[in-house]
Amino acid sequence: MEFIKLKLFCRMTVVSLLFTFFLFACSSTPRVQERVLNTPEHHAYSGYKLLEKGYLFDAKREFNLALRLDSKYSSAHLGLGLIYGKEEKFKLAVDSMLSARDDAKTEEDKALAFVGFMRLYTMKGGEGWLDKVRDRFYDSLHYKEDLPEAYYYMGIAYKKANRLYRAGNDFKKVLEINKGLVAESKEELKSLGKSAK
Predict the structure, then answer these.
(1) Nearest to 173 by CA among 161, 130, 158
(2) Can you say where the TPR repeats lie in this chain (predicted)?
(3) Are the C-beta atoms of residues 76 and 63 closer than 8 Å to each other?
(4) Whose CA is closest to 82, among 71, 96, 61?
(5) How far apart are the first and last CA of the chain?
(6) Residues 160-193, buried b or exposed e (16+ Cβ, 10 A)?
(7) C-alpha atoms less than 13 angstroms from C-alpha of 128 in its C-beta half-sphere
(8) For the whole prediction, is pTM greater than 0.90?
């Protein structure tokens, strides 16, 4: 009888210890939250990925989320400006680009804002559009030399203006810089063919 009581006591002790272990293991202790996904940088990055795929509504949502977290986040203003340009809302697009330029925290951000203007003028067209693009191109290089985005979108503008030799030179400059838009520039050069030589 004593042996059975001892055996039962041991089993109950083991069960109690296991229960206590699982209780503490599953308890919700406060942990440091990772806020990586809810940052202006993350939302803007997601916005640009969605913009590349043509999902304007979703991209706009991401850029607006970035601006809710930081109302002076230059990259988000730039993204919204590009969306407004694609929607042919050029007054809103220019206002967003001005915010991107004015809120730029780095020289590169300022240069990219001028590239945003280049892209808007290329989208809009109209009288003197190529001169406006070229002026913003030089503005961007003033803040950051060897900016692949500046040369790439200058090449796109020259291509639209049917100045294929100049477009080819700008796409080749992107390849020379070799810091981004390389694959896109190779594709553009391929599409230009022999006329870019």
Answers:
(1) 158
(2) 148-181
(3) yes
(4) 96
(5) 101
(6) eeeebeebbebbbbbeebeeebbeebeebbeebe
(7) 3
(8) no
Q: pLDDT by residue (tens digit) across 72-103?
A: 999 999 999 999 999 999 999 999 999 999 99
Tokens of 166: 């100049």
Cα 79 to Cα 49: distance, rounded to the nearest angstrom = 11
Domain with residues 38-105, CATH architecture: Alpha Horseshoe (1.25)
- For the chain, the farthest-separated pair of C-alpha atoms sits apart, in whole angstroms, at 105
User: What is the chain's alpha carbon radius of gyration, rounded to the nearest angstrom?
Assistant: 28
Contact of 145 with 178, CB cutoff 8 Å: no
Element spanning 192, H or E = helix 182-192
Q: Can you name the CATH fold of 107-197?
A: 1.25.40
Q: What is the pLDDT averaged over residues 138-160?
A: 97
Ranges of H-type helices in 26-161 = 40-52, 56-69, 74-86, 90-102, 107-124, 129-143, 148-160
Q: Give yes or no for a contact between 66 and 49, defined as CB atoms under 8 angstroms apart.
A: no
CA angle, 116 as apex, 139 and 197 as ends, to 5°? 75
Tell me the C-alpha distance between 40 and 60, whole Å: 13
